TrEMBL record:
GO molecular function, one term: DNA binding
This protein's encoding gene: rpoE
Chain intervals with Basic and acidic residues compositional bias: 77-94
Name used for this protein in its record: RNA polymerase subunit sigma-24
Domain RNA polymerase sigma factor 70 region 4 type per the UniProt entry, residue ranges: 111-162
Length: 410
């Protein structure tokens, strides 16, 4: 196999097996540092060995076995070991499996461990994106709009706190699940968003592996918590967004915005399931949370056969409700985009400009300004805004789209 073939095989294995390998190691050794570093070493070994020996029939099993050996080697080199690690060293493959609890998926167990209430919410999300989602520190930093160094320190401190506080890698009791679920949903939402529009320069513009994994795990949580409205809302939001995936990038690699997408290419089955969940939550009579409102907004968009049929007044009304639940600048930016369709680009631009301080490093802010300025005939200012948006994004499909729009200004 060529070097490129080996690199592609390792990349596929990383996407499909990273979380499984880390979860397996965390379960056995009870140490997230050991789990992460041994998993990383196993993937490095794969690059070296697969080029000589070929890709194994079961890459996941090969990586897990190799990572376990790397972890044991590391622990043996250390002068101090806690009881959990000593027990892990003498564990045998034929040990009886532990009884299943409320969660019988190792990756979900790892998520709930990373989302322990002893950690700050933003730390829970960042740690789980790294340990379970396999995202790099730069990718996570971009998702949080913070510096890479600060994010690296945050993740390191979180792992240290878990170790120092002896937070166990265990299955939460059923009674603990509702209190722990909000952090898990936040994690899954960000994992999905990274797949929806990848932030890295060397990745596919859309990462179906991440969106599919986020949907799979959210479905598992819905089985565990069938009456939780926000779980249903997040699942509906993911399904309605994923339904548009194949229409979001053109054959030439451009990002295709919502108003230009071929709606006939949308996945009707996913849309029907998402709409069903939204209707179910509306019928419950319970006040909706953030994910349910976002799902309802997407339901309005996916109900329209043509962009001209979109009920923009309903979309703005839903955003008004969302702003009360989540008064973040990103929500305000998205509301302004809808306002542009209802009240005109001049009204929307005034709202967007008020967000400059909060969103100056956020490329969708500049892309939105560029589009509104273009519609108002302010070409030079629009070009400058496009340049800034291009500078701040690494997604290849988005860069291609923004560059084309900028160049159309003449």
């Amino acid at each position: 196999m060529s070097t490129a073939d080996i690199a592609a095989a390792v990349t596929r294995a990383h996407r499909g097996e990273w979380a499984r390998v880390v979860a397996s190691l965390a379960k056995r050794f009870g140490d997230l540092d050991v789990a992460e570093e041994a998993a990383a070493e196993a993937f490095v070994a794969a690059v070296e060995r697969w080029g000589t020996d070929g890709v194994p029939p079961n890459p996941g099993a090969w990586l897990t076995t190799t990572a376990n050996r790397k972890a044991i080697d590391r622990i043996r080199r250390e002068s101090k070991r806690d009881d959990k690690q000593k027990e892990a060293l003498v564990a045998h493959d034929d040990d009886p499996p532990e009884p299943l609890g409320a969660i019988d998926d190792d990756r979900l167990r790892l998520i709930f461990t990373c989302c322990h209430p002893a950690l700050a919410m933003e730390t829970r999300v960042a740690l789980t994106l790294r340990m379970v989602g396999g995202l790099t520190v730069p990718e996570i930093a971009r998702a949080f709009l913070v510096q890479e160094s600060a994010m690296g320190q945050r993740i390191t401190r979180a792992k240290s706190k878990i170790k120092t506080a002896r937070i166990p890698y265990r299955v939460p009791d059923a009674a603990d699940l509702p209190a722990r679920v909000s952090g898990v949903l936040a994690v899954l939402f960000l994992v999905f968003n990274e797949g929806y529009l990848a932030s890295g320069p060397d990745t596919d513009p859309l990462r179906h592996d991440l969106t599919a994994e986020a949907i799979r795990l959210t479905r598992l949580i819905r089985v565990l918590l069938p009456d939780d409205g926000e779980v249903a809302g997040l699942l509906a939001l993911m399904l309605l967004t994923e339904a548009r995936r194949t229409a979001r990038v053109s054959a030439t690699g451009d990002l295709v915005p919502l108003d230009q997408q071929d709606r006939g290419a949308w996945d009707a089955e996913l849309i029907a399931e998402g709409h069903g969940l939204v209707r179910e939550r509306l019928a419950s009579g319970v006040a909706p949370g953030r994910y349910q409102v976002l799902a309802a907004i997407n339901a309005v968009h996916t109900s329209a056969r043509d962009i001209r049929d979109t009920d923009w007044s309903q979309v703005v009304a839903l955003y008004d409700h969302l702003v009360r639940l989540d008064p973040s600048p990103v929500v305000a930016l998205n509301r302004a985009i809808a306002v542009a369709e209802l009240d005109g680009p001049d009204v929307a631009l005034a709202a967007v400009d008020r967000l400059e301080t909060a969103l100056s490093g956020y490329h969708p802010y500049h892309a939105t300004r560029a589009d509104l300025l273009r519609r108002l005939g302010r070409s030079q200012q629009s070009r400058e805004a496009y340049d800034k948006a291009i500078e701040l994004t690494d997604n290849p499909a988005e860069i291609t789209y923004l560059t084309r729009r900028r160049d159309q200004l003449g």
